[in-house]
Amino acid sequence: MKLFHFSEESGIDIFVPRVKENRRDMPPVVWAIDDAHKFTFYFPRNCPRIVYTRTNDLTDDDNDKFFGLTASNIVVTVETAWYERIMSTTVFKYTMPAGSFRLFDEFAGYYISTQTVKPLEVEPVNNLLERLIELNIEVRFTPNLHPLKEAILNSSVTDFGIHRFANAKR
After folding, report:
1. Across-strand partners of 123?
2. What is the mean pLDDT of residues 162-166?
3. What's the domain range around 9?
4. 26 band by pLDDT with thresholds 50, 70 and 90
5. Cα separation of 106 and 59, whole Å?
6. How many structural domains does the chain have?
7. How far is CA 144 from CA 21, 148, 151, 168, in A?
8. Residue among 170, 125, 127 at smallest CA distance from 145
9. pLDDT, average across residues 124-142
10. For residue 123, what pLDDT is reported?
């Protein structure tokens, strides 16, 4: 199993467990993402985004509403104001040793470790939109994510992630 951690910082030698701002109810941990979901971090750290995947349990109406005419099974929607930052950002993919990690969220591909972790290697990742396109992921831009968030939460879409929404336009 391959696990990764993404950061805009290039020189992290060790990852020390810490309490995540939006998960204060958890003990300090180091976070990692599996290979299948790493694309969800091909964005600047604070970029608000909604990622959703076509599943077999979607209603026909929701399939039409959220996937329309796309052949892609994954859609990522970001706010238009983030376009330039996405285009100019390089993120760093840290390959993590899997040994101390345990599964935290299967849908999202999140793993956590309560131990200090030394990454195996680090690699710059740039041309973020091109990488998503190469994976046949549809990338959409919208002036405001709030309507999509409400629609997703009130739909039959079950495989979705709402990332850094506190940074979305009000």
Report:
1. 93
2. 92
3. 3-167
4. confident
5. 22
6. 1
7. 24, 8, 13, 7
8. 170
9. 96
10. 97
Per DSSP, the residues of 116-132 read: -B--SEEEEE--HHHHH
Strand order of the sheet with strand 138-142?
Answer: 138-142, 74-79, 49-53, 160-163
Q: How far is CA 103 from the centre of its chain?
A: 16
| pLDDT at site 170 | 84
Query: What pLDDT is recorded for position 22?
Result: 72
pLDDT tens readout for residues 65-124: 999 999 999 999 999 999 999 999 999 999 999 999 999 998 889 999 999 999 999 999
Single pTM value for the model: 0.91
Counting other chains too, the contacts that 114-117 makes at CB distance below 8 Å and 24 or more residues apart are 114/17, 114/27, 114/28, 114/29, 114/30, 115/17, 115/30, 116/14, 116/15, 116/16, 116/17, 116/30, 117/14, 117/15, 117/30
Residue 1: beta bridge partners?
A: none
Please name the residues in contact with 165: beta carbons below 8 A apart, sequence gap of 6 or more: 48, 145, 149
Contacts of 135 (CB under 8 A, 6+ apart): 39, 74
Closest Cα partner for 30 from 15, 14, 13? 15
